[in-house]
Design goal:
Length: about 350
Amino acid sequence: MKYAESDAAINTEFQLRAIDDVLDELFDDELLKRVLVGNLPLYAAEQDKTPFSTHAFIMDFYNQSAARVVGGSDSIATSLKNTILRYGGTVKTQQKVTKIVCDEVKATGVVMNDDCFMAADAVVSAIHPMRTLELLDTKLIRPAFRRRIHAMPQTVGGFSVYLEFKPGVVPYMNHNFYGYAGDTPWNCEHYTEETWPKGYLYMHFCHERAPKFAHTGVILSYMQMEDLQPWWGTKVGRRGDDYEAFKRRKAEQLLDALGKQFPDIRQNLVRYSTATPLTYYDYTGTEGGSMYGIAKDIHLGAAGRVPQRTKVPNLFLTGQNINSHGMLGVLVGSIVTCSEFLTAKTIYDQIIQSNQGE
Ligand SMILES: Cc1cc2nc3c(=O)[nH]c(=O)nc-3n(C[C@H](O)[C@H](O)[C@H](O)COP(=O)(O)OP(=O)(O)OC[C@H]3O[C@@H](n4cnc5c(N)ncnc54)[C@H](O)[C@@H]3O)c2cc1C
């Protein structure tokens, strides 16, 4: 593990060249090029837009080790919570931050659920930067910064069908399955009512170490927030029968697509439930229900970067939008933000030390 003394935005060649551009230079075989980006839904890559560095960063992670969290990824949240408690911290749930309060020079705390003020020496916001800006009413944040954040492109939204299987009938698949209706993984975010779904990701969840049969799984496909326009402004569980019918229709379409590769899928199901970009928007605040937050775009250069620091000196940003998407991106982003408090050297030394101790 290495760290740089400077956090200046580095725009190397591969941050400024698109994935397809680099693959075109390296390979002639069209099928090989498409196979190499077969798992691009993991980072919602778009042609002539997503930097090669994003592909390389995530592929390297997967090439070193593909992994699932035994028992489900909520065990990460539980573990994090236990660590915070062990060090004397408190974890509050059902407490939506509705305002980040600032005086003339810095943040002084947050208001939760519109009525409870909590004073703070520093505030770290791990939500979408547009949502963070909505919580801030201070001259310290310049209008130009607000405009830049608002103008940034978002990754596409997602539609998920969560599956519960009958016991002992679906052999556990220790890999992801990517299905495409056409002959390319590219451009699945551009579809019509007739051509959806152009692609999907199918995976099983891992309930125990080395399971023989899967209990649950998910099918995930792209979906644009515009498709949900009739239900904008509605709340979870209260969107109406037509929304439920829309979700059922889409789930059945996805099951039809999956059934071409896994013919037994329907008869192996106990039930399924669904989530749309509106669901993700309501639960996480991600703009447009985007799966991975702000999209990387080679054409934006430094303007496409969300800094971990803000003009409010004790307000910091973290999460998938400041570095990169997904679990890996969030981990790296956390180190970047925590470096503001502890220095990168201290964190890296501690990580190396703790790895040596194992
Ligand atoms: C369907 C789907 C499947 C995915 N699969 C994978 C995968 O297999 N591997 C992978 O690496 N990545 C995956 N990702 C991406 C990954 O989930 C995200 O990149 C990651 O969760 C982002 O983490 P975050 O901490 O930045 O934000 P979030 O996980 O969105 O966390 C933000 C939290 O802040 C809370 N919050 C929002 N507003 C407020 C407020 N005002 N006050 C208080 N709390 C607030 C939200 O409730 C949420 O808990 C997937 C994404 C989706 C949508």
